[in-house]
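Q: Hi! First time asking for a complex rather than a single chain. Here are the components, and I think there are two in total. Is that enough to go on?
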Amino acid sequence: MEFIHTRKVSELVATAGSVPRIPAQRGDTEGMGPEPVQSPRMPSLVQAIRTVPVPGAPPPLSREGAAVGLAFLDMALRQNHIRRLTERLSFVEHGVASRTTEVDVRLSLLDPSQREASHVFQRLSSRSARDPEQEQPATPTIWVPVTRISRLSVSPIDVVDAAGNKLPRLTQYETSRLLASGLYRLLKGILSSRPESRQPSNVSRLLREERARWLLQAALLALLTERSRPLGDIEQDEHRILRPPVAGASDAHDCRELVMSVLRQYEPQLESYANLLDVALDNYLLVTALDMSKDDHLLSYDAPVHLSEQTRAARRAGVWSRSTSARYRIQYLARIPASLRSYHVVAETEPGVHIEAMSLVTDVDEANATELSADLRALADRRRRHKPGRQTEARLLELELQSALGRLSELLRSRRWDASQAGLEMTEAALRSSNRLAELYLSAESLVNEPERLEAPLLSNPTLTADDLDQAADEIEAQQLGSDFSVENDQESSRAHAYWRRTSPRSSDGEHTSVTCTLTLRDATGVRPGSVIAFAVAVAATIYLVGALLAGSPWPYGRSANSSSNADAVVAVLLLVPGFLYTRLELPMRHTILGHLRRQSRRLAHLSIASAVGASAAIATDVHDYALGGMLALTTALPLLAAAILHRRIVKHRDLVPARLSAPRWLLSPAVKPVPTDAVFQSTGWHHE
Amino acid sequence: MSDEEEASPAALADLARAGFLMARQSLMQVNFEVHHVLDRSGYLRDLFDDRVAAGQSPLPQPEHGMAYGNREAPPSPGQTPRETLSAAAHGVGLVVGTYVGALPQGMQRRRRGSDLPVALRVDDRSSDSWVFQGTAWPNPTFIYESGQKFEGLILIQEKTTGRSSFQGRAIAELIAEVSKIAAEQKAPLLSVQGPVQLPARPDDGEWPVPSVVAVRFAMALRRAGTERRLKLSEAFAEFAGKRGYGFWRADIRPGHRQGNWYLVRPHDRSRAEQYAARARWNDEEPRCSLPITFVGPARVGSTSAIMSYLREFPELGVLACSIISLDDLAFIHLQLAVNRLPAGGTQEFESDLRRRVRSAGGNDMEGRTSAPQELLPEILPLVTGNGNGKPGLDKLTNLTDRAGDYQVLTGPTMLVRHEGDDRIPLWFSWRAAGTDDGLAAPLIAFMDALAVTGLAPACGGAKQVRDQPNLDYLVCRDIGESTLRGRGKITLPRHVLRQFADTRPEVIGPRISTNLEDAWRVELSRYALPGGVEVSVAWMEYRLNNSTTLM
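A: Yes, that's all I need. Here is the structure of the assembled complex.
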């Protein structure tokens, strides 16, 4: 499922346009001349208003369509009908993955008004009168938004049901017209609820003047229905219309200025509207027709995943630095809507590769943790300034202190349970202050629960200092306590699945929850690197043997090194024997994950062949004495040395460490170095922070 | 709430939903209905019964649907309200409901093609029950996350021994302060309610007093850190401290929920008395009250603007208040104390009031509606008995700026009636998913369950009001995802406890609650509601098992 972080995009746009964020101007702005754009909140809308021709007749917006559009937006945001989201990832080749998203929809979870909106849409969109008796469809359908897809994604989407039948879906043109109608109505509603709309003001003028209203409608319609939307630099917009140099204001210009001044003036009030507009602009709603006779539906669609840029850069830089890992590490970065309750990731790999471990890290408690550390700092500050004897202040501080420490204790508890579930230990040493505060809270609980006691048991505790609170706040941030961690506990196989659920969908903050799924893959073919090591040793032995026989001495690397008069035969032996042995090696294809996992073996084999070729070349070109001795020594030693290194590294990498699972810092001891990743996948429109 | 921070998808979905509900309306406005009535047991139930009987609602009628009271034809849009508030205090009942859907025919006529709110319809056929119907622009950006709010409770007087003008004036001053602090913090005021129940003390061995002179408030504070919460609390604590009031904050510690209170400052009786004496607020107790409701788009600062204008008349008392936002509309209901009645009594006062309202409303007989900036200067001198009050121009400008598009619903004048102290509270809550009848059916079933369990007299009518259960407070709102959540407090006469041998609350409280909850479930099972309804009854608010974060 692909989502674009709306705030992110607007920020990007704002930065791209280098438009400073100027606080909204209040008051009367009538009669103002051309001025720099001051409305970075809705840059696209502003640009559309500037450039769309002022209509001479009302644009075709439907009133009933407005209700439907807003209901669709409500359903797509709230997702109350979606019970579960499953993402099936399949990693078949190195750097290539495919993804199928499955959505469990339950129609009875839609509320009556949402259903009604879908029916209204059905009625609105039918072009012919249907005879209720003759043409009653065999299965009544209902149009339901299933998900939002980033507008940046261009992949065509087929939605299929559990039986594999493709489902009809609305065209983006149809949905966007509904949205345009809805968003215009909403904007009008917000402006009408202002007290100034009843008094002589810009907003009442806008509501009264129909050409200005039409312009607003046309701008929204253009923005939503056209395939592309402006993302560029609005400050340097070439099409910017300035007040004509000749005296006398033009009507069109007045309309534009009026709309713009209202948008500027009500920027704070339109904050959430701007967010909603961003959602509508950045996403396509995937609206499909579902069979109403069935309550539960399982829909699936393919959604592409891309290799992130950072993987490519890292790969170029680190080809040799860590080419001997026996594990292949994949990260999948996803954003799931904050309203989603249940999320599954199922990963599959090619045969012969096992998923050794799979972990899921989400930032679900991030907002709580940030708030908690800010609260702890504020409390530390208050505690320093607090003078004994002020009873009311003490009572209030005590309440906040108990609340903060209670939340801290809860946060620590859930992290500890996460660790225990994963069979790992928390880094207790790095959370010393937090743990102590949580213990203080828990031990004082019997005291604090007395409702009518005017005491402050925690505040009056001399062992609880302001520095403790500050340190705990630092620890929460440094140890990433806002990130949870879960690890798959199933038997190792070529399939693994991780599960995550939210406790309370309403309390979530922000638009998305970021999920990082990390997999470590292992070669499970049973082919041991031993065969490659044996191959390297055999090649080295062949070179040595040939050298020794030619020199007639067990130490062929000195002056005694000699080439043969029958160099052709020797070269043939040196090339044929390793060549034959190489064909017996079962080396996987280069671009497969297995190939990647055994790239060290492959490199060793290639090095061995190269050594044989080097030795053959030296003998064939009739080199003598030390030069030949040195060459033979080099070509014998290189495969042996590389084989020894490979053997050693394989032994070293057999243990499983949390660092490899991208665990948050509360699970990592500070000494652990970050483990590089072989491939990072993400959806279109996913901006990693 | 239009904050600077990034909104969560739920908040964005709420905005889209608000827009959707609005776009469905023919006028893009929310229809509302406000009842100012003489408080009596079963009013709301009768109202729903009538609506259901009108056949407009698909709610199946239970076989023994007993309805009592006067059955005047409801001037209804033909359905039960969606989000509802019902409150009762000092003998005045308030029912506020919002509707979605097409404009009813009568309103369509009154619309006269205008985009402005439809002229208000006032149904005042009975002298003690006025029903106002109209439409208002909602504010779709008024979005708040239910989990992030600041709740407090300020106690003015623990035991009301001597009643005077002090209680009303103190409440008025307190609401003004609460709304002022909320506006300064740019925090949307979610609800203000007074009088309310005192935070319960479980080890008291006494039933909690259902209603004391106190105000409970909640404001949305998105991503407020400790510092901001402390500043807010300190402002309230300072205000309470100077006057000797008690101050509680909603307990925010993990494991605590709505109904759990944390005592910040205990009530200081002697200081409160000193304060009243110093302010010379010890005149005669008002005998009449004028219910007044302001309706308009919910926005930050509107309550504060109205209250600061009202405070320009320092002698004005507010006996009770219910401020809430339903379907993005703000409803600010105040029971203004009528300080002095003219020689002709209530009737003369009423006719004088009507005259003033009419003149402020441009002689519009049909729609007795008016903007606060036009109506308040007319009626406040009459209510306070102070003809010389001249509010400052800045307050009037502020009122026009922040609440100039609000509608004011006033009347009728009612006698102040004090409930006896011999009542016990019971809290109840429910959550109904996926149904439009998530309000009427559970409530009717609850009332029936009261009768079944013997907590209410089997048949109403002739009995004394004080012998019947009374709905003190009820709020029902859509919490998203097609779920309606309601919670309320009902008071029962203490004598219902006589049927039990042991009347200690910790013994009998859970027993009554479980009994009633079971009966409620049985009654509810008679209605085939699609999504199922979860119900809960408790003798203390925090024991409600499906306690909502919304008030």
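A: DSSP finds 20 helices and 14 strands in chain A. Let me know if you'd like any chain examined more closely.
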